[in-house]
Amino acid sequence: DINNDLSLLNTRGPCSRYDITVDGKNLRGKIEFSDEGAPFKGIACNLGSLGHKYLDQATKEVYGTSEPFSICGSLPLVGDLQEAGYDVQVCGYGHSAVYHGDNEYCTLSQMEKALKVISRLLDLYNQ
What we know:
By secondary structure, this protein is mainly alpha-helical. 31% of the residues lie in helices and 6% in strands. It has three helices and two strands. The protein has a two-stranded antiparallel ribbon with strand order 1-2. Helix 1 crosses helix 3 (108-125). It is elongated, with a radius of gyration of 23 Å.
């Protein structure tokens, strides 16, 4: 049992130990694993769908290029839509270096271009 010898765990220096003394009191951490229910669902976009074809084309027309990529994460509600039969495509046109970070932001020019992609995507669907 790892709780019998917490010194086996790696630390990140003297302030991240699991046995510490504060105000004369010896405090000891404890590690527990528990089942918190069903795991999050991930998704994989259908790169062969009409939605992806049109999104790719609209992105190329506005940005000059389209380079689909994958990142890890969980989008349970989006997964539910996909399971219900919707053609789910996930995209973003901001600064990927700041996605989900402190002070995440995008620029007005990025939003303007993203709106052009959406507008063109709708045009392609309505042809």
